[in-house]
Each structure stands twice: as structure tokens, then as C-alpha cells.
Amino acid sequence: MNSYKNIIILTGAGISAESGLATFRASNGLWNNHKVEDVATIEAFERNPDYVHDFYNELKLELIKAQPNPAHLAITKLQQNYPAKISVITQNVDTLHEKAGNQNIYHIHGQINQSVCLNCGHILETFGDVDTQTQCHNCHVTGMMKPNIVFFGENLLCMDTVEQLLSSCDLFLSVGTSGVVFPAASFVQIAKYNGAKTFEFNLEPTSNNFYFDKHIMGPAGTTLPAFIEELLKSS
Ligand code: OAD
After folding, report:
1. How far is the CA of 202 from the centre of ligand 1 (A)?
2. Which of 100, 105, 131, 230 has the fewest other C-beta atoms within 10 Å?
3. What number is the average pLDDT over the span 130-149?
4. Catalytic status, residue 109
5. Which long-range contacts (CB under 8 A, 24 or more apart) does 39-44 make?
């Protein structure tokens, strides 16, 4: 293997599967048996904020219990031992990368333990319940907190940084994502055009097949640590 200077690890729901969390498309487009249009659109939130808050408060309870698996932990090992800038761009709203000790994490779809005040933009960090009675700690307005989850139709988070990282990336690893939700699905193409080596870790080939130099099939909790061991040996 080469020596790399700017590594991106893009992760999706598949990296958390071995931590016991369901992936999206495995459950027929339903999020824990809820319809996407009822819990993940800004219209749904405007229509029925209590319902949407209840959904994410419940999801928090599930995600707070989950523990990182060997794939998350291998990323920490890589970051601690490989002499490169290593960034984790995740579509996951769980905090398993943080729990595993990963650094340089960009949650482009938001994160479950945050709410954003629609009045002033303040971010409230909590695993506790947030609802229409919650007061913003900054502007003190009540009832304007929204889960800091990127709903369909909203802009992704951290994209300025992500674009910069993609432009200088020389190794791009995609782990456990189906590659059907844009713009994340286009990151591999951008990285490849910029000269990066591209590897996909998944149970099966995805629709982004074409842009990967190599597909490593199997559960990420096994394949990613093995790949990272090889990378560390070669450094
Ligand atoms: P998906 O549910 O679409 O895809 C999960 C991928 O992980 C699939 O390709 C599986 O084959 C793969 N997979 C499952 N278990 C695996 C394992 N143990 N090891 C390796 N791969 C495994 O999830 P995402 O691609 O993350 O958006 O979905 C992208 C976005 O769609 C989500 O972030 C969410 C959803 O709408 C928002 O929340 C805005």
C-alpha cells in the first residue's frame, strides 16, 4: 500500500449494524416503523412538532445504549498510529464514532444528541428529552428547538470543510453506506477525480460500484480492522 497524507472515512448505517442499530434501507424505507415523511421532513416538523420530538427522544434512548464495534475502534487505532490527517465523515446520527474515541468527525446529517434553536441557531447538547416546552439556553425563547437532524430538503452540515477535505484526499474509504443518498453518494466520485484511491467496505456492491478501485465485501467489524492493520504495517 502507498503512504497516504489525507484519508477520508465516509460512514453510513452499515458501520453501526454490528452495534445492534438497524440500517435504513433494510427496513423498507421506514425509520423504526415510521414513515420518513412523518418524522424526517421540515413540513412534518411544522405540522406536528410534538410527534417528531417524541420520535427522536425515543431514538435517543436506543442510541445512547449502543456501543462502538471493532470497525469504530479500528478507526481510532488508525488515527492514533498512522501519520496522516484522517477525517471521519459520517451520515450517522448516532455518536458511536465519538464513543470509540475517533477524532475529526463531521456529522453531515446531524447528530441525535443535539438540538438547534430555530430562533438564534444555538446548539443544545443533550441526551435528555427535548420538546416544544424546551427553552433555548441562549435566547431563552421557548418552543423553537428542533432536533439537529438534517431533514429531507435541508442543507447538509459541515459541507465547506467536507469539500476542502475531498479536494485533498488521497485515500477514500466508504464503510457501510448504500450510496443512494446525495450528496454523500457523490463524495467517492469527487475523491476519485481528485486522484484518491477508493475502497468500499460493504456486505454487497452498491450502485456506486464504478468509482471504487476495490470492494471489500463482508461485515465492516471484520473487514475494516483487517484493512487498517495492513495499512498500519505498511506505514
Ligand atoms: P442504508 O441503510 O441505506 O445502507 C446501509 C448499507 O450498509 C447497505 O449498503 C448495507 O449493505 C450495508 N451494511 C449493512 N450491514 C453492514 C455491515 N455489518 N458491514 C458493512 N456494511 C453493512 O444507510 P445509509 O447509506 O447510511 O439520511 O443511508 C444514508 C442516509 O439515508 C441516512 O443517513 C439517512 C437515510 O435517509 C438522513 O438521516 C438524512
Report:
1. 9
2. 230
3. 97
4. yes
5. 40/149, 40/151, 40/152, 41/151, 41/152, 41/153, 42/151, 42/153, 42/154, 44/151
